[in-house]
Specification:
- The chain has seven helices and seven strands.
- The protein is an alpha+beta fold.
- It has two domains: 86 residues, Elongation Factor Tu (Ef-tu), domain 3 (Beta Barrel), CATH 2.40.30.100; 65 residues, no CATH class.
- A seven-stranded antiparallel β-sheet has the order 4-3-7-1-2-6-5.
- Helix 5 runs antiparallel to helix 6.
- The radius of gyration is 18 Å and the shape is elongated.
Length: 169
């Protein structure tokens, strides 16, 4: 059985192996109700206030987690160990996150760049989207989008490593 939406209480914990990273625990029973697979993107709403897109990661013993950054935790006024109300909904968006308009415009204007972007794994697509979206300045988002897509088109198929798209290799 799979559900498109579910709401439950859980806790915020710190990931011991990643400095400063926190997560929301998703118990095995909830993972199973969502379809029993980690290969899904979700829209997460915490305490009926802040929504963001994320994916399930294996925690062990069938449990999973979704990471939450410090900025969102401050916005929600929550900290390590706090109980939260978590609403999960299956993410129906194409890439599992919002595409910045600057990247979207470039991909619309560059058929080869669009084709190469579409051929990437979903994780690499999201990495590019996140890298472009992570700066506030529209000009910097344009610059990052152009850099990544220009370098992507130069790379041999199957060798699309992110460092190479940044021009570091």
């Amino acid at each position: 059985m799979t559900l498109n939406e579910i709401e439950f209480t859980t806790h915020i914990y710190k990931l011991p192996h990643l400095y400063g990273m926190h997560y929301m625990e998703i118990p095995k029973e909830i993972v199973e109700k969502l379809g029993g697979t980690l290969k899904m993107r979700l829209v997460c709403t915490v305490n009926q206030t802040v929504s963001f897109q994320g994916g399930l990661m294996a925690l062990g013993n069938g449990d999973a987690y979704i990471s939450i950054n410090v900025k969102r935790m401050k916005q929600l006024k929550i900290e390590d160990g706090d109980e939260i109300l978590l609403h999960l909904k299956k993410d129906e968006s194409k890439y599992g996150m919002d595409v910045p308009p600057e990247l979207n415009t470039l991909l619309e204007q560059d058929p080869e760049g669009f084709e190469r972007f579409e051929a990437l794994t979903p994780g690499k697509q999201r990495y590019i989207i996140h890298y472009v979206a992570s700066v506030k300045s529209s000009q910097k988002r344009i610059d990052r989008a152009i850099l990544l897509i220009t370098n992507l088109k130069k790379l041999p198929r199957g060798k699309e490593e992110f460092r190479a798209m940044l021009g570091l290799e």
